[in-house]
Amino acid sequence: MRQTIIAGNWKMHNDRAAAKELVSGLQDVLAQVGDNREVILCPPYTDLETATTLISKLAHVSVYAQNMFYEEKGAFTGEIAPSMLRELGVKGSIIGHSERRGYFGETNLDTNKKIKTALGHKLRPILCVGENEDQRVNGVMKPWIQMQILEGLQGLSGEDVASIVIAYEPLWAIGTGRTATVEQAQEVCQYIRQVLADAYSKEIADKTPILYGGSVKAANAKDILQQADIDGVLVGGASLKVDEFSQIIKA
Fold first, then answer.
1. Do residues 212 and 230 lie in contact, with contact meaning Cβ atoms separated by under 8 Å?
2. What are the pLDDT digits (tens) for 29-62?
3. Which domains does the chain have, with CATH numbers?
4. Catalytic residue among 99, 106, 169, 244, which?
5. What are phi and psi of 42, to 5 degrees?
6. Is 97 a catalytic residue?
7. How far apart are CA 40 and CA 191, in angstroms?
């Protein structure tokens, strides 16, 4: 059985004091997380050390970065190396989030390099894929998502693929208040699993966790998590609120 994953992406929110207040407020619910699920907190770089320190004694809670670079060191102003994340106790990283692709021009080749580098440093990647509204309306959603997956995972073994997480994020439902229906979310997550089965094997596809991310809230989390091919959620704004995120963790 695949583990349920509840990941909170803080994006560019929370200074160190706010980060400490948020994680401290979540301590009780985080302490109750059992073997069948994992909670992942994804703070900004400046809050990583604060978060890893506060959750260090919690068995089923991890801290991931929101991004990382694919080189070890060098003249890459503004970038963060995987070894720097490992030094802080970070366990993984979001890779290829739609905002990285949209605002900063990251490509499938970039995500592929980052995933390979992350795995080489024993950091677990969360590969984000998804379509915009035009792609959905014009019927190219599935080929687009297939391309993101196959190019992002190019050159990886089945064992590597089974060790990563894939997050489906419909761009039209991120930060808009709109959410894909549970049927829409399940349909695409099921399709992602089929892409993995065709490219690798059904066994690999069945082992790979697939998350849904797109205006996830306490009110819809339970219905989303009940879908057969959805193994968790990637939460944005709701992960910044103690009560809201606590309810999602317990959904």
1. yes
2. 999 999 889 999 999 999 999 999 999 999 999 9
3. 4-249 (3.20.20.70)
4. 169
5. -120, 80
6. yes
7. 25
